Amino acid sequence: MLAAGALLAYWLGGLILRASSVIVLIVVSLFIAFGLSPVVEWLIRRDVRRRYAVLIVALGFLAALALFVLAIAPVVADQVAALTKNAPEWFDQLLHNRQIERWDKQYDIVSKAQDYVTSGKITQGLFGGVLGVSLAILAALGNAFIVIVLTLYFLATLDTVKHGLYRLAPASRRGRVESLGDRILDGIGGYVSGAFLVALCAGITSLIFLFIVGLGEYAVALAVVVALLDVIPMIGATLGAVIVSAIGFATDIQIGIACIIFYLIYQQLENYVIYPRVMSKSVDIPGSVTVIAALVGASLLGVVGALLAIPTAAAILLLVRELVMHKQDQR
């Protein structure tokens, strides 16, 4: 029986690994639905029926997504093309550096790097050529469509599914389970909404700064990159700052220095003012646990794992405090 159980567990583990990509999409959809759920509850408190509240939020979510794609995607594409077009000129500017000039004379590194970028070998190396790029784009669009459909489904049925799961608990403990479950789901929804607000703040602030500092030609594309990366815990904001500063230095050394100073100041403001105030009502988790959870989540599921790690850790801590610690204190 033990051997049969081990073989069955091994077989089930293999099936889960094979379906890991689908499971990740389901989990991401659930977290987005949890993030939209507070808006639904807010509408319900304003005497709007649940089905109408869900419909309003779903239509608003689709409309915002469509407007983002229609308004931002062409601008981002044009500015990314401008970045690619100006890349050879930035390589030429490197030749004015004495150390780079000596290295270039010895190893011809600048011309090789310039040829590598302009020849399109980066894209071929990343995606395996034109066919690989097409397949990668189709896969990304397919995953995005699946996430959108699942998010709308979970948002419409979240209350029913939640109460159905609560009924699995014994009737004598169902009230306690419902209380803990609602607190966990509220925390997850608050974290997702808060992360979106923090990222939006970083993107808007970066957009304004880039127009002021003289990088208006690339402002929209870089602001979108900063906002997307800012969602990633721990390293996202730093990665965005490095990318913007690198382009600033390639354009003008004074702009690069201004970018470094700006992001040093802004990250302190975000870490100690914006983030704590936004997240104060959603997750209650020590800083050390945040770091450990993000590292473990990133090692297991990459960027998605890092995104899901913090609310998961907060949920586990809540269960430990309410169940384990509470019993220990009563002894």
Topology diagram in text:
Layout: H1 2-18, H2 20-45, H3 50-94, H4 98-107, H5 109-118, H6 121-127, H7 129-166, H8 174-213, H9 219-230, H10 236-251, H11 253-279, H12 287-330
The string of secondary-structure elements, in order, is HHHHHHHHHHHH
Radius of gyration from the CA trace? 24 Å
Helix/strand-derived category reads mainly alpha
Shape: globular
Question: Count the helices. How many?
Answer: 12
Estimated helix fraction: over 70%
Q: What's the rounded overall pLDDT mean?
A: 77
List low-confidence stretches: none
Largest sheet: none
Strand percent estimate: under 5%
Between the first and last Cα atoms, what is the distance in angstroms? 38 Å
Q: What is the number of E strands?
A: 0
Give an overview in words.
There is one protein chain. The protein has 331 residues and is mainly alpha-helical. It has a domain of 122 residues. Helix content is 88%, strand content 0%. Helix 8 runs antiparallel to helix 11 and helix 10 runs antiparallel to helix 11. It is globular. The chain starts with a helix and ends with a helix. The mean pLDDT is 77.
Summarize the structure.
With 331 residues, the protein is an all-alpha fold.
Q: Keywords, please?
A:
globular; 88% helix; 331 residues; mainly alpha
